[in-house]
Amino acid sequence: MTHTARRIGRSLALVLPVVMVLSGTLAVTMVPWADNSSSRILTTSAEDVSVPAKPRAPQEVLRDKLLGELRAGQQPGDVLMHLQQEVDRRPSLAGHCAGIARALGRAAVEAYGPTKAQSYARPVCDTSYASGVASMG
Predict the structure, then answer these.
(1) For residues 132 and 97, which has the higher predicted lDDT (pLDDT)?
(2) In this structure, are residues 125 and 96 in contact, taking their beta carbons and an 8 Å threshold?
(3) Measuring CA to CA, how many Å separate 126 from each of 13, 100, 129?
(4) What does the pLDDT look like over 36-84, one tens digit per residue?
(5) CA distance 28 to 26
(6) Up-side HSE of residue 48: CA atoms within 13 Å toward CB?
(7) Do 71 and 111 form a contact (C-beta atoms < 8 A)?
(8) Span 92-110, mean pLDDT?
(9) CA 132 to chain centre
(10) HEC sequence for 29-70
């Protein structure tokens, strides 16, 4: 009897997860997400593939560009200088400077460790770079 119970338990252990996944998948595909009619079924469609992505904010583009420079091996001091140059060139970015500098400080800690990353601190956006380094160290 113990052998039979063990065999049934093993069978259930193999079959039950498959049944649960399939029933969950079917339940999700049958939900009328955007329409109250029961004929609406969630399907995969490629009709909106050509719709362009929403434009990204300038500060996000700049942050990603500078983080890319840092990850590509440029010294954090040089990247901070590029940040300052961009803020000087486009004053509308000044309100975002501190957040970008903090992100650079965190990324510098990941690349160089807290002590070396702190040695690259510059007076860009007050002490935001150093704040980013300290938050990771």
Answers:
(1) 97
(2) no
(3) 59, 12, 8
(4) 554 445 555 555 556 666 788 999 999 999 999 999 999 999 999 999 9
(5) 5
(6) 4
(7) yes
(8) 92
(9) 18
(10) HCCCCCCCCCCCCCCCCCCCCCCCCCCCCHHHHHHHHHHHHH
Residue type, 81: M
Contacts of 31 (CB under 8 A, 6+ apart): 42
For residue 30, give both structure tokens.
Answer: 């049958």
CB 42 within 8 A of CB 29: yes
Question: Which has the closest alpha carbon to 136: 102, 100, 99, 109?
Answer: 109
User: Do residues 32 and 38 touch, judged by C-beta distance below 8 A?
Assistant: yes
